[in-house]
Design goal:
By secondary structure, the chain is of the alpha/beta class. The protein has a single domain, classed as Collagenase (Catalytic Domain). The chain has helices at 22-37, 50-61, 93-102, 107-122, 130-146; strands at 5-11, 41-48, 69-73, 85-92. α1 crosses α4 (107-122), α1 crosses α5 and α4 packs across α5 (130-146). The chain is globular.
Amino acid sequence: MSDGLSVDLRVADPRWDTLGDVDAFAANVLERAAVHMKRGGEIAILMTNDAEMQALNSQWRGKDKPTDVLSFPSDGPEIPGQPQYLGDVALGYETALRDAEAMNRPFDAHVSHLLIHGFLHLLGYDHIEAEDATVMEPLEKDILASLGWPDPYATGPYAGGKAGG
């Protein structure tokens, strides 16, 4: 990671190791996102399973089901001279894998999208309203393109729709 972005990564489910060096993978994706957005700070990433994602989704969003990605932006103040804590992002393995397979996308491409999606949520971007999605989705596409991945909204369930939370 550059001086601009610090990532605290916790891999709570060993199946994420299918990505290879998970730390390097996440660092590369998030560094691209941070550089593109010209935004640094500190973030925590949890790579877990559907059971934990369902518990988090139920507790924080009132939705008793697993999901692929959850973002929890920090509401803490910025402290002068200190890196800003941007928040937490959690990813669920089984849902991410099912979605990647359903969309016929490589798993690493889909996980890259989820990491970028979560990072943008930490920066305040959203996609609930169509006009917000017209801002957020091109950012995702551009960052993914810089990693060599195609537009995730061009085909599949996300076409014209929204990714996870």
